[in-house]
């Protein structure tokens, strides 16, 4: 059965299509109460579904917020998404979700799709990339966001600024001090571990990973420790697992050579640039017969919700992920436009985190 039309509603209500549109699509120009009630009754009787795009034109607002993440299955992004959803609900808006796999080219396509649907705001969460293969995608994403903001859109970005984006009205950044927090974590770990450190990081050029690696190395240097070796892998659990298998092989070889013996304090402390990589690395070590923290120490970054069920408890840097999602969304809907007195204007905001040490970096024989 074909959907009923606005013309049919108008005919049943005995009004013009323009009058029916003003009633059902939210125009500021509304007819009298009797006419409005007659139109609504006709729409209900016919099962008419209002056209969202027509409503957006009438109200100059679609009531939509676009959210772009790398992978909604990753607990890091799902926690941010909860914060976005919470603000959207408070503002009586709906969230549209796009997952991109992390490439700026895919993010550009998502921005264009949300703009075509007249989304009031777009929130982008995920690491920026300076890899050469992403240069074209970065330029196209920056241009698409410029076009969207010049047409009245608002964008909230989590983490780092969009590569190549200029100063735009409607552009808001929620910064995360990844480098400083990783340095603090390194200092804490170096105070309790005298052995070797190794870093499991994402692909070179992935800014979040690079910032955390650089910060951890600076923290080790400040503690008078040599730089850690960096193993590069996919910035996800699978990447952590593959790196963990390599580290398990090294631990086994060290024991075979007599350089390390079971029952002694572990010679290796692993820093994974995010929690899901740490979980993957720990799983790989466990699959090879090694245990945390008996055979190796390990720490991550983010404090994702999944860690509640991870044993032993994972040392990490706790980020207020839901609050980050809230702030990024609030910045786009006009509720955070005043100076906050923290050195940042309405163009952006910096959040911070907390080093949280747990059982995974506490050795016990």
Number of distinct beta strands: 12
Q: Which class of the largest domain in CATH terms? A: Alpha Beta
- Name the strands of the widest sheet in spatial order: 2-1-3-4-5-11
Largest sheet features: 6 strands, parallel
* Percent helix range: 40-55%
Q: Count of DSSP helices? A: 12
The sequence of SSEs as H and E is HHHHEHEHEHEEHEHEHEHEEHEE
Concise account of the structure shown:
It contains twelve helices and twelve strands.
Q: What distinguishing features does this structure have?
A:
434 Repressor (Amino-terminal Domain); Rossmann fold; six-stranded parallel β-sheet; 365 residues; four-stranded parallel β-sheet; alpha/beta; 12 strands
Blueprint of the fold:
Layout: H1 6-13, H2 17-24, H3 33-46, H4 52-59, E1 64-69, H5 75-90, E2 94-99, H6 104-116, E3 121-125, H7 135-150, E4 154-159, E5 171-175, H8 178-192, E6 196-201, H9 207-222, E7 229-232, H10 237-256, E8 268-272, H11 275-287, E9 297-299, E10 316-318, H12 321-330, E11 348-350, E12 354-356
Parallel strand pairs: 1-2, 1-3, 3-4, 4-5, 5-11, 6-7, 6-8, 8-9
Antiparallel strand pairs: 10-12
Helix pairs in contact: 1-2, 1-3, 5-12, 6-7, 8-9, 10-11
Structure in words:
- There is one protein chain.
- This protein has 365 residues and is α/β, with parallel strands linked by helices.
- It has three domains: 6-58, 434 Repressor (Amino-terminal Domain), CATH 1.10.260.40; 63-175, Rossmann fold (3-Layer(aba) Sandwich), CATH 3.40.50.2300; 178-318 and 353-361, Rossmann fold (3-Layer(aba) Sandwich), CATH 3.40.50.2300.
- It contains twelve helices and twelve strands.
- The strands form three sheets. The protein has a six-stranded parallel β-sheet with strand order 2-1-3-4-5-11, with helices on both faces.
- Helix 11 links the parallel strand 8 and strand 9.
- Helix 6 packs parallel to helix 7 and helix 10 (237-256) packs across helix 11 (275-287).
- The radius of gyration is 26 Å and the shape is elongated.
- The N and C termini lie far apart (72 Å).
